[in-house]
Design brief:
The complex is a heterodimer. Chain A is mainly α. Chain A is built from five helices and no strands. Chain B is built from seven helices and two strands; from the N terminus they run H-E-H-H-H-H-H-E-H. The model of chain B has no long low-confidence stretch (mean pLDDT 86). Classes of the chains: A mainly alpha, B mainly alpha.
């Protein structure tokens, strides 16, 4: 417990670092959100490219590597821009931050519910006989769903103006 | 009172910026004294966040004044009025 709290405290100090102050504006947070969404779109495009357009495997691997690096950096910057309010334990947050965290999780739950219904709908339609959905749609939907589960609280926090 | 009407009015009034400045304490120093993030002090000073009772009491203790000298539900009279107009209502 103590060890865990210490790790959380270290994480809180890192995400609160003045080095990231530049990103703590509404404009920068929106830019970072757009970059992250761009990474997701590029991932989908790469999968479609390799399966439908028969791009070489090397292009796919290099492309995915670049996108993973871009995702790590943009998500890291986005978390620093929100001071990690959405991911840190309430034990290292003050009462206002803990309140924001609660509101963020409430909104994230609603957004995720909508995405879940959409994902199930797309997968169900892809299985139906009247839509000859390509195989990659079955790969893209879970891949995007997993990434959204991880990033939606950060998106919701970043788009608030009172973080 | 409707929700819209409640949103338009400040939920509380505060003299925190005046008292803090008077004592020469920075937001960061006060935040460290009462155990919150310095950003939260900014939100409190702008009246954009209503503190819990515990936080309000901690702030009052840190500034060595009663809690109703820092936070109130009705507007405070100005410091100048209080200092120079002794007949006026003073809080």
């Amino acid at each position: 417990m103590t060890e865990s709290l210490t790790r959380q405290e270290r994480r809180a100090v890192l995400l609160d670092s003045p080095a990231f102050e530049k990103f703590r504006t509404v404009r920068w947070r929106r830019i970072l959100c757009a970059v992250l969404i761009g990474v997701f779109v590029a991932e989908v495009a790469l999968i479609v490219g390799v399966t439908v357009l028969q791009l070489p495997l090397l292009v796919f691997l290099v492309g995915m590597l670049v996108l993973i690096v871009a995702m790590v950096f943009s998500l890291g910057a986005l978390k620093a821009s929100t001071r990690g309010v959405e991911e840190l334990s309430p034990a290292v947050l003050d009462e206002r931050q803990a309140q924001i965290r609660g509101l963020v999780y409430s909104t994230s739950y609603t957004v995720l519910s909508v995405f879940f219904i959409l994902a199930v709908l797309v997968l169900w339609l892809a299985q139906s006989s009247w839509w000859s959905a390509p195989f990659e749609s079955l790969l893209i939907v879970p891949m995007l769903a997993i990434q959204l589960i991880v990033t939606i609280p950060t998106f919701v926090t970043a788009l608030r103006t009172d973080v | 009172m409707t929700k819209q009407a409640r949103d338009e009015q400040p939920q509380f009034y505060t003299r925190l910026p005046v008292l803090r400045t008077e004592r020469g304490i920075s937001r960061k120093e006060l935040a460290d004294l009462v155990g919150v993030h310095y950003q939260t002090i900014g939100y409190l000073e702008r009246g954009e966040y209503s503190p819990s009772l515990v936080l309000a009491l901690r702030i009052a203790a840190a500034l060595a004044v009663p809690v109703d000298a820092v936070f109130a539900l009705t507007p405070f009279s100005s410091m100048a009025d209080q200092l120079y107009n002794t007949e006026g209502e003073s809080r």
